[in-house]
Amino acid sequence: MLSRSALLVQQLSTVNSRRNLSIKQLHDIKPIIKRNLAWFSNQPGKETFGGRLKRRLKNVFVVTVAGLGTFYAYRAYNRYKWFHEMSDSDKTLGTKQRIVVLGTGWGAVPLLKHIDTNKYEVICVSPRNYFLMTPLLPSVSVGTVETRTVIESVRSLIGPRIKYIEAHCVNIDPKAKLITCNTDGDSNVSRGDDVKAILSISKREGGASSRIIKDSARTRPQFDMKYDILVVAVGSENNTFNTPGVEEHAHFLKELLDARRIRSAISDAFESAMTPTQTVEEKKRLLHFVVVGGGPTGVEFAAELADLVREDLQHYFPRLVANDVKITLIEALDHVLSMMDKKISDYTERHFRRENIEVLMNTFVKEVKQREVVVQYKGSTELKSIPCSMVVWATGIKARPLTNKIREIIGLNIQSNRMGLLTDRYLRVKGVDDGSIFAIGDCATIQPAKLADRIQALFEEADTQNRGALDLQQFRTLVEKKVAEYPQLEVFSKKIEDAFAEADKDKSGYLTLSTLRSILEKADQKIRALPATAQVASQEGRYVAKLLNQLSNVHSTDFQQQNLTPFQYKHMGSLAYVGGDEAVLDFTGSKPLLDYFDLKPLSGRSAVYLWKSFYFTEMFTGRTKTLLAFDWVRTHIFGRDISRY
Amino acid sequence: MLSRSALLVQQLSTVNSRRNLSIKQLHDIKPIIKRNLAWFSNQPGKETFGGRLKRRLKNVFVVTVAGLGTFYAYRAYNRYKWFHEMSDSDKTLGTKQRIVVLGTGWGAVPLLKHIDTNKYEVICVSPRNYFLMTPLLPSVSVGTVETRTVIESVRSLIGPRIKYIEAHCVNIDPKAKLITCNTDGDSNVSRGDDVKAILSISKREGGASSRIIKDSARTRPQFDMKYDILVVAVGSENNTFNTPGVEEHAHFLKELLDARRIRSAISDAFESAMTPTQTVEEKKRLLHFVVVGGGPTGVEFAAELADLVREDLQHYFPRLVANDVKITLIEALDHVLSMMDKKISDYTERHFRRENIEVLMNTFVKEVKQREVVVQYKGSTELKSIPCSMVVWATGIKARPLTNKIREIIGLNIQSNRMGLLTDRYLRVKGVDDGSIFAIGDCATIQPAKLADRIQALFEEADTQNRGALDLQQFRTLVEKKVAEYPQLEVFSKKIEDAFAEADKDKSGYLTLSTLRSILEKADQKIRALPATAQVASQEGRYVAKLLNQLSNVHSTDFQQQNLTPFQYKHMGSLAYVGGDEAVLDFTGSKPLLDYFDLKPLSGRSAVYLWKSFYFTEMFTGRTKTLLAFDWVRTHIFGRDISRY
Question: GO terms for molecular function, please (chains A, B) (predicted)?
Fold first, then answer.
């Protein structure tokens, strides 16, 4: 091989040494190259079996060596780059504006990935040192997907130029631009038998540490940190709606440890039912699983549980599955997946009936006890007790203590929304004068600008001819010009003539101030808070990163002057897995897709491939993508593991 | 394709229809088959690129369809067989002798896999519903291998013909042949704030459940179970040697949850050290990891930890790794891996110095405190305090409460060994008259038969000519005949002339009773209890299964009469991973291998492949084999995950 390539080089250099290459000379090179290329490709003439095998083995060997070489070279380069950038960012410490981001969830991570680290010094502070792919938690809770598949270390996600500190932020001083962190007051806890204190910490942390007995060695001193810009992306907590017994006896499904506990509890229930001397009644109770909440989390968990029972547990416990297992989904409204299209709710309910999942609609859970749930049907005053084993509580969210603390610090008269921090349309927290605090994700709500508040100004601006009335053209201009600022105007965008005709009751062809008011108030009523979804948080995170990257002057608070566009949410559709290799997708309201294809709500087996490919592409890194694909194949071939630990 | 095969069938049936097939007619068929086969193989003549691609795609398609078809057919058949066998074994309930096996570890599982279920009704009782591949725990504790890779559900391991019940055996009645199980007295525990009681249960269970807060729904009533034969394979507990503070502040490395906790604690230590305002001293303390015990577990854990630090943590915490991380291994003897060859100990110590693992030899741990260990050097009376973060305690084992309870029930005068249940050479527990209880694994010790006790009888038997003295030939016969019963005679087997000459001090060519006594007493001194390893337990498990399968009459206790051979341990060598892709293997004393190859202690990179392939083949199922291979590749490509949950 060496001699051949040496020959090629020699031949080419001979040709080249003539200096003046004419077209004719190029023709001289062609056959040389062709002859040499022929050596790499198929040999002419008849090939023996041994010859072909040899050639193929050689090819495999060359490809393997080249592949491994590329892989190790790429890794070595990446490591070098990583260290280089890390020391680089250490050198510039203190010379740039500092952004502190609280959180490592769906809002914070997209922000951290898109922020310009050449422009800012960025520090991320969060008690959870990994990003969690929350939509896959129902899969994790039954073992379809493993725990480490759905998490990625935040340090590897955000790269070497951003600092991460594992700490709880407990206080904020917006005047001094200072946050105070004290990871869990560990230094105040006397160790030894004071197990309760440790347990309460672990509870407060949302179960962020499994080392309840043995985390004796850590110290986490309190510290303060200055910021120039603070981004609050701390997410939300489970909302029990003050239902008694939920904290003590129900499982949540929000963090990774919840999923682990549920998986363990399912296995525990079956092993308990297999204990000799159990009565039939007790077996039925032990194998009755109750899911409270018919949103995507509750529906997906019930679906995954039904899959686990049918595909794996039936194998090991055929009698129990045939006679005693029962899954019940309790929903307070009259439909599951009520945020989706009606067709999808109906489909899911029909599908659940086929999967033997009982759905109790219009049912309120009044109390969760150790071995039962107490429910009340709508319109009835009677309380009914349902004996059951595991209760999974997936109803809703509420603001975290830190969010409420920030609201109090700013003033509850301004921060009047109990669900989270009110922000303007640039996601800046209301009531912070210098605009230095942003809030994104579940802990934030954009305060809607009401058209009715500025009706006079809007009318005057639109009435270009000062005739005290607007014609259709002027109304259209008004809507088009203001839709960015007032997203509620979107309801008119497609049927502006109809809206105009409806408002113009006397058929004069003009709108007066009062008829305009009536039509705009109707639009104001359509204002809804953005849903607390990963999709919203992720778009908000990207938006704030882009906004901060564009910002010419951090201290100027007039963003309109700087030609910065306010945040606009683009709905891409909702989807949920409903079990038995079927999924439902709802593209209603997702403009980008609806404009190109006329997509209606999708359901069934085709949807599950869309569901899978969506989550596959959503996984942040090559590592998690590989693990997810492997997990799906593994579950398909080997089934789910039922070991309890 | 259809027409072609139709043609083939037609042609063949034409030939066949002639009824009387002669040799000549067979010749007629040959070219037809050949021609049709040619269609499947390579086409003659020159092949175009498109033609070849088409052919190859077709091949890929055919292979894929055939492969998937085989896979699904095989799975469907397996499922059918599983249910069939399960209902089959249900039908024969109560008609066969019942064997109850306590445990799901290295002793119990090989027994359960080899027992003849046609002959016995077999029930397995254990609080842990999975088999744990204990030698891989050090790998799990740093994330080289994931948790679910090293466990396999016991239900899937033992198959449909053996019943498994998840329960704690708490008492045994050898007279009534009855065991009492009460899983964890849960029914006695009042729930609610009684967190301490629950915690103490979880502690007692060896951390078998992670659901400390939320396992409110289970019930595990007490039950009794009759047995005909009982096999005790409950294993052992960690031995703290009454060192103060170990239970409270040190990590063990024996169960899966220990490994999980350690992994979490390592990450926790690094995150703590990254907290601002930590002093240099405190950083050094937080990153000082101490391993107590220089046996295989301690050495492998230290090695894996060093790998984790060098390969992954260095990437994320370059400064901490360069300045502050320290790993110390504390060993009470003057060598690590003291049960292995001296060369291997030396090699490991040299290797650990290169890996920056400090080894403190001749050092005793007197106390473990919250943030330090107190040690004492051999020959010194001074106590020294070493500040440290995590302490991993891997020193030794002791008997479980159930083992001690059985010893008490039988009588401590017979069961005088504190390490476990004394058995005879058929592994039957001493002091049980009907021989109905066997003990295997870590909880059992074979009571050695001492030659000195029967010296008179042995001498008389060997002295065939009644001359009051033995010549070399008679001594040789004695050794060969009795080596099965008295394994300690093996020390003579290779150099019997030397032993004879040494004992025969007056060179008379004969041994008298007193010289024979002196030589046999020397042999008795060589008796050692079998090590508490997976290898021993596994061989004992297989042995008992084989024994019970051969047994013609369960109630006859004279096994010698039934020509049953006593248990003999075959040492296959020991091995340990020492980090940096190096392992050590010691084949000393492993006869089968030493006889064929002259294998010396192995160490270094070649050994690691042997180490890996050994564990790969040891994995019980295709599932765990696949997962282990995947984990190794994943760690190599993506590194270990440092998320803490």
Answer: calcium ion binding; NADH dehydrogenase activity
